[in-house]
């Protein structure tokens, strides 16, 4: 007679993604929400209640707070070590401080970090272990870490580092790894990805069912869900962004047939109702925060009112303040600032250095390029292509003042494209400012090549520090308010 206790095993899989240095709790409606103290308390509570708990992080632990950026991820590794994840994969922002620094941070991590596709050019040596196998209560779980080049454009500055390109290559890599461990009787296979929710669904579609992929735990698109997506019999989940919630799978695994027999998934709110506090974590975070408070308490800007950035795929007030400041300071006709550079949904009216750094954490150069009107229109059409409105894996840009763009989704056409009330002239040359990250990815992000641009005029560096430029502007211009109505109108 079959022993069902041996065949069916209960596993709890907890997962986070895109934490972005969101370590401090916030008071919302007189209740504490988020923060690593209560997150750690919830993890400890789950582990005490059930020994079969696995905690995974699907990328982007770094960036987004001064606690992270001031110490270049070192403080983040200390904090994540206390959370004690069982497995972590890389996100695109893990490479922000450079690949060599990331490898240093990996040595400080008390948890395994997996990634299947970053490699050294020339000999194809992987930088990280591509997978990790753990056994818990007799259940063998195979984790595979996946990024694609589309979301690790930062590494293009690393001439020795390569990666595979798209989801087709990712699917092949997953197949190679799964086939290599068929003989180990893997009971549960989980992909930890950081490519965006829509790309996860595309990946699931092309994965061979015989590989036995059960779950995709994703990140990058900051997607909040009510229930898992199911594609090709693969469960696809994501837990939004930050530490305000955590994803939870309660699984029953059939170890005879190596599949999920049943499951329940929920997004658990991290708040003072559900989660005890972790005093050790609070002491660690306080010791780090005390070191940053004095430096970051200085007031650096004064707006007329609170400015907002509710959605990176639309023109916003905060996007306007940054693009306008860069345009005026650098004397360009147009400045396109990456919407993803703006990391807070609201800021002001009084802005401290900490507020600013958390809102705009990416310092770097700005480049000036000369484009024809026809090239500028082509760039805008590429930015507003259909994929942009899926909101998960394309770059979007905030227009500087003077620009007026009306775009039709159904016609895939610019109905209006003006600068300072005059139609953009296809044959006229315009000066355009962009950030270094976007300059390094011209063809991918804008559909124009560097060779084309250089035919107009050789690009120049306008500033070696965006942050210094912005701070100087804010110091010289107080009581700022920004009206962005009419800069970008999108029609169905």
What topology emerges from the helices and strands here?
Elements: H1 4-7, E1 8-16, E2 26-28, E3 31-33, H2 36-49, E4 53-58, H3 66-69, H4 74-83, E5 87-89, H5 99-108, E6 113-114, E7 119-120, E8 125-126, E9 131-136, E10 139-146, E11 161-162, H6 167-180, E12 188-193, H7 197-206, E13 215-217, E14 229-231, E15 234-237, E16 245-254, E17 259-269, H8 279-296, E18 299-302, E19 307-308, H9 317-330, E20 334-338, E21 346-347, E22 350-352, H10 353-359, E23 366-372, H11 373-383, E24 397-398, E25 403-408, E26 413-419, E27 422-423, E28 429-435, H12 436-439, H13 442-446, H14 450-456, E29 460-463, H15 466-476, E30 488-491
Parallel strand pairs: 1-4, 4-5, 5-6, 10-12, 12-13, 13-15, 20-28, 25-30
Antiparallel strand pairs: 1-16, 2-3, 7-8, 7-11, 9-10, 14-15, 16-17, 18-22, 19-21, 20-24, 23-28, 23-29, 25-26, 26-27
Helix pairs in contact: 4-8, 6-7, 9-15
Describe the structure.
- With 492 residues, the protein is of the alpha/beta class.
- The chain folds into 2 domains: 286 residues, Purple Acid Phosphatase, chain A, domain 2, CATH 3.60.21.10; 195 residues, Alpha-Beta Complex (5'-nucleotidase,  domain 2), CATH 3.90.780.
- Helices cover 29% and strands 28% of the residues.
- The protein contains 15 helices and 30 strands.
- The strands form 8 sheets. Strands 6-5-4-1-16-17 form a 6-stranded mixed β-sheet.
- A hairpin with a 2-residue loop joins strand 9 and strand 10.
- Helix 6 crosses helix 7.
- The longest helix is centred in the middle third of the chain and has 18 residues.
- It is globular.
- It starts with a helix and ends with a strand.
- The mean pLDDT is 91.
